[in-house]
Description:
Elements: H1 2-10, H2 12-54, H3 67-77
Amino acid sequence: MEDVVNQIMANPLFSLVLALLAFLLIFLILKSLFRIALFLVAVFVLYAGYIHFFQEKYPLPEIEIDPNTLSEWSEKLTEFIPLDSNFTRSAPED
């Protein structure tokens, strides 16, 4: 392994070719990530426009939450939600 590194360091043309290949690889990866990010931004803009223009025609339904039902569900779910920092459940109560 040291021989390969020494040969690369001794030959500046070989170092230049490897640097260009590394630059090309990084450029292609960043280009694909940029395309993905651009696609996600476009989808978000389309969704925001859809919400903005069709909000009056198709309003979101009003949700009425009963406080008693909410407290019942929160009590049921607390046994499944980890509360300490290492995400372990509390011991089941008998």
